[in-house]
Amino acid sequence: MNNTRGESVARQIRMDSLEKQLICPICLEMFTKPVVILPCQHNLCRKCANDIFQSSNPYLPTRGGTVASGGRFRCPSCRHEVVLDRHGVYGLQRNLLVENIIDMYKQEYIRPSPERKVDQPVCEVHEDEKINIYCLTCSVPTCSMCKVFGSHKDCEVAPLNSIYQTQKTELSDGIAMMVGNNDRIQGIISQLEETCRTIEVSHPVWGLLPPQSLA
């Protein structure tokens, strides 16, 4: 029995390690097909790659929400610069191997188990009621009884699941925007450093003069 339990634990550890390899660094979820592979061999959901690309190239023309011409962005995992052709992120090669691994993983290990019950938090006021809505007015999760009879009866509410999905999308978009902004800042810094080096080479004496002498 101990051997069986040990094998089960080892198998779970391997599966957890595999699952970590299938997590997108932008949306922090398992890769969503299509999955694209970057020249540095790191992978991204194509949607996430497009989000980073648009954030890094805000002035390029778009078509249907996708940058329609070439540009560049940096891999969020290793900072390698990815240069794209006129097809944008659609010119990146799909990683069919990773997509197949994801399909097999989901078929083998992500199966609905009717016996398993997920503990859902209950309302502190109405102990028999599960928290299933979100109060937009007070910015707190609550239960249906609080909305009908309790302290949130005059508040605006929404289904908890929809709020979760909305905030998850906003978080993913925010991460992509931060990565894109960082790429632009790094590009500006590199240009300034290159300009300074060019000036120093062209006018080496300038670096020896006090600032007031250059005015």
From TrEMBL:
Keywords: Coiled coil, Cytoplasm, Metal-binding, Microtubule, Zinc, Zinc-finger. Residues 118-160 form the B box-type domain. Residues 24-79 form the RING-type domain. One of its GO terms (molecular function) is zinc ion binding. PROSITE patterns: ZF_BBOX (PS50119), ZF_RING_1 (PS00518), ZF_RING_2 (PS50089). The keyword Coiled coil applies. The keyword Coiled coil applies. May bind and stabilize microtubules during myotubes formation. This is Tripartite motif-containing protein 54. It comes from Sinocyclocheilus rhinocerous.
